[in-house]
């Protein structure tokens, strides 16, 4: 359960996964000062996947962004990181916590790989700029009615673990750049091997930069799902020999019962 950014209500993030969507149409008025303060607090409390990677997240306004054809939002998170092994997956995992929290709080948001911050924002840190997330009050419907509205691969196309289908359904629904869903889950229900698909040459030019972020997002959805089923997700490296052809092994998620 998480506390909403806009009220005292507690929300189950697991439920949000089944209806969230990217929001691209915003009311241009800024959010209330108290809500922006709550967002800043949450940014300081995000759980990293790897805790030895420096990150910096700044709230900026729509006027601080070069839009490159995208619609303007009133606010953006500008996300920076140290360039270290696992840094993109770490950011995907951390910032998906905000994407779901925004949605749970009635605020729209969308990961934005195409726009970039103006130069004065880039000068605010020595860390490398990675990506933006737009956010603000939506002027389109915030939620999907049910999972049939998600355009996603079927479970059979993202996993060969028969007994983990219920656990992996919220992972199937995770967002990814140009909806490429570059993930595959193999192994066993207690030791899930996380892999990324190798894109074909043309697609690679568009998505290579985002694959690791996308996988971090999916790992966060897996953590939320594991907790819903009273399990703890532990990130390890334990490559099994049976990784299917065309998949890159990334990490293993060990699931332990909470009792
Ligand atoms: C890393 C990343 C980058 C993205 N970049 C953009 C973008 O530049 N512009 C945009 O409109 N949507 C962008 N998206 C949103 C995806 O297009 C969207 O998540 C995907 O199509 C699935 O739709 P949904 O989020 O509504 O479920 C991005 C998503 C991710 C995860």
Question: Your description of this structure?
Answer:
By secondary structure, the protein is α+β, with helices and mostly antiparallel strands. It has two domains: 135 residues, NADH Oxidase (3-Layer(aba) Sandwich); 107 residues, putative nitroreductase (tm1586), domain 2 (NADH Oxidase), CATH 3.40.109.30. 31% of the residues lie in helices and 25% in strands. The protein contains seven helices and twelve strands. The strands form four sheets. A four-stranded antiparallel sheet has the order 3-5-8-6, with helices on one face. Strand 9 and strand 10 form a beta hairpin. Helix 3 crosses helix 7 and helix 6 crosses helix 7. The longest helix is centred in the last third of the chain and has 28 residues. The model has no long low-confidence stretch (mean pLDDT 95). It binds flavin mononucleotide. The site of flavin mononucleotide has 18 residues, from strand 6 and helix 7.
Shape: globular
Task: Enumerate how many helices there are, as a single number.
Answer: 7
Total number of distinct structural domains: 2
Rg over C-alpha atoms, rounded to the nearest angstrom: 18 Å
Terminal-residue CA separation: 19 Å
- In this structure, how is the largest beta sheet organized? 4 strands, antiparallel
- CATH homologous superfamily identity of the largest domain: NADH Oxidase
The succession of helices and strands, N to C, reads EEHHEEEHEEHEHHEEHEE
Q: Helix fraction?
A: 25-40%
Bound molecules: flavin mononucleotide
Q: Assign the CATH topology of the largest domain.
A: NADH Oxidase
Helix-and-strand structural type = alpha+beta
Give the tally of β-strands: 12
- For the residues shown, what is the average pLDDT? 95
Assign the CATH architecture of the largest domain.
3-Layer(aba) Sandwich
CATH C-level name of the largest domain:
Alpha Beta
